[in-house]
Design a protein that fits this description.
By secondary structure, this protein is of the alpha/beta class. It has two domains: 123 residues, PhyR, sigma-like (SL) domain (Butyryl-CoA Dehydrogenase, subunit A, domain 3, Up-down Bundle), CATH 1.20.140.160; 114 residues, Nuclear Transport Factor 2, Chain: A. Helix content is 51%, strand content 16%. It contains 14 helices and eight strands. The chain has a six-stranded mixed beta sheet with strand order 3-2-7-6-5-4. A two-stranded parallel sheet has the order 1-8. β5 and β6 form a beta hairpin. α2 packs parallel to α4 and α3 packs across α4.
Length: 297
């Protein structure tokens, strides 16, 4: 029994993480699911992977509903708990987009059932009938939910390019321009509708609200540079399929800045400073969509 769970663990973690936006909560869901799995008679499970996906989905739905109030009371802007992803994630465009900060924020605007249905169908490739068994709805209802959720997501999704050498060069140029106060270089790198979202969780200094527009974001970047943060040593990493910079203070991870890039311009900057969300951000997480072909518009 344990071997089947281990075999599909990457898929199960990916589902739970995309459902919850938190690696910590995803691990809790996997632990709960494993305990349920361990109590099952092996002879009663014909398709272990399908069974495990149902269990994890149900546990994630329960967990998501329980944390709703906690998220509503969150201090400042909320971002998903960042995860470091292997380079191979960037080669799967659907997986990379689905774990990107921008998409995870869009998923937060869905209700729990809509989120589960959209992810299982459009990202992981499960049929409406299979999803119905996981979320406790009829197939007809799931089909309606999928249509509604897809329309909602597509109206709000942002263009996104996975981590690449070109993207890392843009990150390097942005940080250099910020550190040296090169306003024109910053303006050339930023898209007109660029947005900055910083998550301090009320525990450290961070912008409480999103900052939008090229001029405002350039001013913000220059202000941060005057604190010395932007000129601190950093390491290029892949975070949620995106190019990112990892900054240390006294040998500890102090903040993580992920870059959303499209057509050679920075369209989004996602800064994680909340120490509660950074404590697991150094471990590279294996992600897996399970090999199914998702729905395509």
């Amino acid at each position: 029994m344990g071997d089947a769970f281990t075999e599909h663990r990457a898929l199960l973690f990916t589902i739970a993480y995309e459902m919850l936006g938190s690696a910590t909560d995803a691990e809790d869901v996997l632990q709960e699911s494993y305990l349920r799995w361990s109590a099952v008679d092996p002879a009663a499970v014909e398709h272990p992977r399908a069974y495990l996906v149902r269990v994890v989905t149900r546990q994630a739905l329960n967990h998501l509903r329980s944390v709703k109030a906690r998220r509503e009371e969150y201090v400042g802007a909320w971002l998903p708990e960042p995860i470091r992803t292997a380079p191979g994630v960037s080669e799967d465009a659907i997986l990379a987009e689905s774990v990107s900060m921008a998409m995870m924020l869009v998923l937060e605007t869905l209700n729990p059932t809509e989120r589960a249905v959209f992810l299982l169908h459009d990202v992981f490739g499960y049929t409406h009938g299979e999803i119905a068994a996981s979320v406790g709805k009829t197939e007809v209802t799931v089909r309606q939910i999928a249509h509604r959720a897809r329309r909602h997501v597509h109206a709000r999704r942002r263009r996104f390019e996975p981590d690449s050498a070109a993207g890392r060069e843009i990150v390097q140029r942005f940080l250099l321009a910020s550190a040296t106060g090169d306003v024109q270089a910053l303006m050339d790198l930023l898209a007109p509708d660029v947005v900055v979202i910083s998550d301090g969780g009320g525990k450290v200094v961070a912008a409480r609200h999103p900052i939008t527009g090229r001029d405002e974001v350039a001013r913000f970047a220059l202000g941060v540079s005057r604190t010395g943060a932007a000129s601190a040593p950093f390491e290029h990493v892949t975070c949620n399929g995106m190019p990112a910079a990892r900054f240390l203070a006294d040998g500890e991870l102090d903040w993580l800045l992920a870059f959303e890039i499209h057509d050679g311009r920075i369209t989004g900057l996602y800064g994680m400073r909340n120490p509660d969300k950074l404590h697991r951000a150094d471990a590279v997480r294996p992600l897996d969509r399970g090999g199914r072909q998702p729905w395509k518009p």
